Amino acid sequence: MTQVQERTGVATVGGNPVTLLGPEIKVGDKAPDFKVNKDLMTEVSLSDYAGKVKLISVVPSVDTGTCDAQTRRFNVEADKLGDNVVILTISVDLPFALSRFCGAAGIDKVVTLSDYKSRAFGQAYGVLIKEIQLDQRAIFILDENNTVRYVEYLMEMKEHPNYDAALDALKELV
């Protein structure tokens, strides 16, 4: 059995410290591959978005106010970024919940993906919260070659990411 790295004292949920599983990804790292679900039966991986600049928006659940706002914001911005950019929103929500949310919220530019089966994305990117098995809020920007160009791990689950900084970093790559 492979030992999963645990990071404590780097994140909180409602002010309570939690343990993140997996490594801390840094700018300049080669992005780890992952498999997540597009729907119940269809898995996708990083290679499915080869040749594109990727903004990966990690949210605990689209059924919360901050996650809803984050997903809506990036959906609006996606229209301005061109065909060489894909925005992926990844959570542990079931694909059914993601589909329902997108339909109700008019989300049509952001690709929503589910880490529900194995939590492999969360562990590979160091965002899986051990105590509650949700992914901690984070932003990762990868260039066309899957080199990490921007990272923001949010200390508190309820905090919003720095949208402007992430979008500025993204625009530098397109």
Automatic annotation (TrEMBL):
CDD domains, per the entry = PRX_Atyp2cys (cd03014)
Catalytic reaction list: a hydroperoxide + [thioredoxin]-dithiol = an alcohol + [thioredoxin]-disulfide + H2O
**Which EC number applies?**
1.11.1.24
Source taxon at top rank: Bacteria
One annotated GO molecular function: peroxidase activity
Q: Name one Pfam family in it.
A: Redoxin
The alphabetized UniProt keywords are: Antioxidant, Disulfide bond, Oxidoreductase, Peroxidase, Redox-active center
The catalytic residues are: 67
- Which PROSITE patterns does its entry note? THIOREDOXIN_2 (PS51352), TPX (PS01265)
Residues covered by the Thioredoxin domain: 25-174
Keyword presence, Zinc-finger: no
NCBIfam families in the cross-refs: PRK00522.1
Q: Which HAMAP family match?
A: Tpx (MF_00269)
| Role noted for this protein | Thiol-specific peroxidase that catalyzes the reduction of hydrogen peroxide and organic hydroperoxides to water and alcohols, respectively. Plays a role in cell protection against oxidative stress by detoxifying peroxides.
Q: Could you give the subunit structure recorded for this chain?
A: Homodimer.
- Please give the family membership noted in the entry: Belongs to the peroxiredoxin family. Tpx subfamily.
Q: What is this protein identified as?
A: Thiol peroxidase
Q: Which organism is it from?
A: Paenibacillus alginolyticus
